[in-house]
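Before surveying the methods themselves, let us examine one representative protein, written as a sequence plus integers encoding its fold.
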Amino acid sequence: MQTSFLGASHRQVEWHLVDAEGAVLGRLAARAARVLTGKNLPTWTPQADHRQGLIIINADKIRLTGRKAEQKIYRHYTGYPGGLKEVRADQLLATKPEQVVREAILGMLPKTRLGARLATRLKVYAGASYPHQAQKPSPVNLTRSA
């Protein structure tokens, strides 16, 4: 039996708008990664780029369940000796909420060249305004159970 895969399409990126107000971080990130990879489409193939983009607004109103706000630690290395920086999730949510949402979603994307290309189509904003009205994003609800 021969298996056929659909090739990468050359159509325009289809943009979706997600309002993260009141959403749980992990559940929103899992569903957002599913949309970015195209796994929500019937034509999904692992190696294909399905040209889906996400604009996430109200990242400052995201929720963390349990004690994750105090216990979850975000780490990054500056490149200098002794340059390991650590910050708690509640501190990062207060200063850079879009980074919390972005890191959660990017952690669920493949660690390949395809994943790097998909990451360029993720736009996260702390407030309700965004500069991508020209892309005409269609609103999608990722906070409900799918």
About this structure: Residues 15-65+98-130 form a domain with the Ribosomal Protein L13p; Chain: A; fold (CATH 3.90.1180.10). The mean pLDDT is 92. The helical segments are 25-37, 68-71, 89-95, 97-106, 113-119.
